[in-house]
Design brief:
The protein is of the alpha/beta class and 336 residues long. 43% of the residues lie in helices and 15% in strands. The N and C termini lie far apart (40 Å). The C terminus is likely disordered.
Length: 336
C-alpha cells in the first residue's frame, strides 16, 4: 500500500486511532461515508491480545477495509506474538503506538514515552516485520518533555525506517508526560507542522504522514502539498459528515451527492444486527452524533440520539426519527 502510494504519487487519508472512540461501530459508520479512507482501531495492548478475548478485541465488520490495527507495547517478543495472532483477522496494516501520553500507557512503558527509547522502538518494529504479512508502521510525536524535536525526530525516523517501518505517521506536537492530561496534550503543546514537512523533504523515499490539529479537508489538502498522507482525529469524529467528501477531494473520485438515506438504512440494519446479538443501540448511535454539523435540524438530531437511544429497549426507530429531523434541502440557509 505505502510503497505503491510513493511510486505512483498517491496520497492517503486516514482517520486517527482514538481510544474509546474508533471502535468497530465507529469504523463501520465512517466506512459508509468514505470507501477509501484508511481506518484505525483503538490502540490495543499486545498483552491483551495474547491473554484476552481475541474475537472481542480484534473482530470487526468486513466492510471496514482498509483497516489498520494499532498495537501498544514495548516488548518485541510480545508484539511479534500479537502480530501473529492478529494475522488470522486479516488487517491491512499493523501500527505501533509511540504517541499516546496517558498515565495508563506510561505505566506500561509504551506509547509516547518510547520517544526516549528509539532503539527499543526499532527492535519492536523489526520483530513485528519479521512475522507480519502486511505493512508495519509507526505513529509517533515529534518528541516528549524537554527533548529537542529538531534533533530527536530525524534520528527517531531514521532508526525506525532502518528497522523496516513501511510508513511513519507523525503527530506534529510534543507530548508532555508530566503535568498535562491526555486531553491537554492534544491541545496545549504547540504544533510544528514545518518540522514534519521537513522530515518528508529530507526523506523522499519514505512514506511520511501528518496528524495533529487538522480541522477540515481544506487544511488536509494543504498538508498533502507537502506530505504523503494526512490523518484527522477529533475533526473527523466530531464533524463526521466531512468524511463524505474524502473520496472525491483526496482520491479524485467522481463527485457524488451524499446518500444520506442510504446511510440511514445502513446504520439501521447494522444497529438491528448489533442489538440482536446483545448490544445496545447507544453503543452505535454515540458515534453518529457528529453527523450533520451546521445543517438545519442538526440540534434536534443530536438530542434524539443522545436521549432516546439510551432508553431501555431502544431500537432502530430512534435512528429513523433522528434522520427525519434533518432538512436535507441544500437550498435552505444553514442553521442549528
Amino acid at each position: 500500500m505505502y510503497r505503491q502510494a510513493l511510486e505512483n504519487g498517491e496520497k492517503i487519508f486516514a482517520v486517527a486511532p482514538m481510544i474509546d472512540w474508533t471502535d468497530t461501530r465507529c469504523r463501520f459508520l465512517h466506512r459508509q461515508l468514505s470507501k477509501r479512507a484508511l481506518l484505525f482501531t483503538e490502540m490495543i495492548v499486545a498483552d491483551a491480545i495474547i491473554h484476552g478475548q481475541r474475537d472481542r478485541l480484534l473482530g470487526y465488520h468486513p466492510q471496514e477495509h482498509p483497516v489498520a490495527l494499532q498495537l501498544g507495547g514495548s516488548d518485541p517478543a510480545k508484539l511479534a506474538e500479537a502480530v501473529r495472532i492478529a494475522g488470522d483477522y486479516r488487517y491491512d496494516e499493523i501500527n505501533l503506538n509511540v504517541g499516546c501520553p496517558s498515565d495508563r500507557v506510561q505505566s506500561g512503558t509504551f506509547g509516547a514515552c518510547l520517544m526516549r527509547e528509539p532503539e527499543v522502538v526499532a527492535q519492536c518494529v523489526s520483530a513485528m516485520k519479521a512475522v507480519a504479512a502486511v505493512p508495519v508502521t509507526v505513529k509517533c510525536r515529534i518528541g516528549v518533555d524537554d527533548q529537542e524535536p529538531e534533533t530527536v525526530l530525524p534520528d527517531f525516523l531514521a532508526r525506525v525506517v532502518a528497522a523496516g517501518a513501511d510508513a511513519v505517521w507523525i503527530h506534529a506536537r510534543k507530548a508532555w508526560l508530566q503535568g498535562l492530561s491526555p486531553k491537554e496534550n492534544r491541545e496545549v503543546p504547540p504544533l510544528d507542522y514545518d518540522l514534519v514537512h521537513r522530515m518528508k523533504r529530507e526523506n523522499p523515499d519514505v512514506f511520511v504522514g501528518i496528524n495533529g490539529g487538522i480541522a477540515d479537508l481544506d487544511q488536509a489538502c494543504d498538508h498533502l502539498q507537502h506530505m504523503d498522507g494526512v490523518m484527522l482525529g477529533r475533526a473527523a469524529y466530531h464533524n463526521t459528515s466531512i468524511l463524505a467528501d474524502v473520496d472525491h477531494r483526496i482520491y479524485g473520485d467522481e463527485a457524488r451527492q451524499a446518500d444520506w438515506m442510504g446511510l440511514r438504512d445502513a446504520m439501521m440494519a447494522y444497529a438491528a444486527d448489533y442489538i440482536a446479538a446483545g448490544g445496545r443501540l447507544n453503543h452505535v448511535t454515540r458515534h453518529m452524533v457528529g453527523l450533520f454539523q451546521g445543517m438545519p435540524g442538526a440540534r434536534r438530531f443530536r438530542q434524539i440520539l443522545s436521549s432516546d437511544a439510551t432508553r431501555p429497549g431502544a431500537g432502530t426507530e430512534v435512528i429513523e426519527a433522528a434522520f427525519a429531523a434533518i432538512d436535507f434541502n441544500p437550498t435552505k440557509e444553514l442553521a442549528g
